[in-house]
Amino acid sequence: MSRSVRVVWDDALTSYDFGPGHPLAPIRVELTVALARQFGVLDTVEVIGCAPADEDELALVHGRDYIDAVRRVSATGGPDLRVGLGTPDNPAFVGVHEASALVAGATLAAAQAVWTGEAEHAANVAGGLHHAMPRQASGFCVYNDPAIAIAWLLEQGAQRIAYVDVDVHHGDGVQTAFFDDPRVLTISLHESPHTLFPGTGFPSETGAEGTAVNVALPAGCGDSEWLRAFHAVVPPLLREFAPEVLVTQHGCDSHALDPLAHLMLSVDGQRMAYEALHRLAHETAGGRWVVVGGGGYELVRVVPRAWTHLLAEVAGKPIEPSTPTPRAWCELVTRRTGEVPPLNMTDGRRPEFRDFADGYDPADPVDRAIVATRKAVFPSHGLDPLM
């Protein structure tokens, strides 16, 4: 399906590290890249390095006063609570600017490869820091790499960019960056803001011309319900919007084992979402697809498997779910974490879902969430919310 693929990786990306005990542990991307290498996924793509985003690139989204503040924190490791650094979510550390700018630079490298035609698809699994605000660190995020990449694409002349965020948390920082810009369609599927950080992402947050789209799903939602909601909202909007580039954020903290949230997806359900977004990239965006990681806090059993499936899908070489995890990788997991590794690439699920076109149940909380979103934004796109 895919003609050319780049994966952006540099071992220095693991320097984005808030310290021992913090949920966003860099071991998750280390183990992901190791697993993808063991499966040969990275042998089928071009792996490229990256440079840190410079100040002008960061300033496409972030205030220069904020960037200066992050630099000062970076030099000393001292907190600056005015910009959200030095909190439990966002501890201050020496080198925070350099580490954050490198993550942003990696996502920029992916966007640049796709925009110039050097690659059809490009991925940075260390990215996806979607909570960072223009002048505030938030939710483990210092610089908002997907928003910076989108802003760069707009600066190059792109007129329609679609961003789909499947992280369990609302993609609030990206929505904020483009809330009043009808050139950017942001779609976020997340756990209800009534039960989860950041407390935003209601269907009523619709932005310019209905281009901010929020699907707020109830706690306990599993594969079938989540996939039903995804297919009821995302494909029709992407087909109507017809983006020049599709940017997708793949936080895998929607998994049932994730310790910070309350959705109940499996790796198998997440893999089906990756397949669907790959198809939609080709159908609606001419194959131009920029992929980033995101949240995910079950560091051994979930993140490496989910994102290895993601990279394999991006590469056009999907991994059969029943495939055993390689022995060498299992030994690495035990050596690095002391935990028992997963033995194969599946949770043993075969998710199925009912199509929304077959009718909806007003007593079902997931169907109510779907209808709320469709009623809020579909008319702005010339779509019937109930059909």
UniProtKB/TrEMBL annotation:
Q: Source organism's superkingdom?
A: Bacteria
Name the Pfam families for this protein. Answer: Hist_deacetyl (PF00850)
Q: Which biological processes are named by the entry's GO terms? A: acetoin catabolic process; epigenetic regulation of gene expression
Source species taxonomy: Bacteria, Bacillati, Actinomycetota, Actinomycetes, Streptosporangiales
User: Would you identify the family this protein belongs to, as annotated?
Assistant: Belongs to the histone deacetylase family.
Keywords linked to the UniProt accession? Acetoin catabolism
Name the UniProt record assigns to this protein:
Acetoin utilization protein AcuC
Originating organism: Thermostaphylospora chromogena
Instruction: Give residue ranges for domain Histone deacetylase.
Output: 22-313
Pathway(s) the chain acts in: Ketone degradation; acetoin degradation
MF-aspect GO terms: histone deacetylase activity
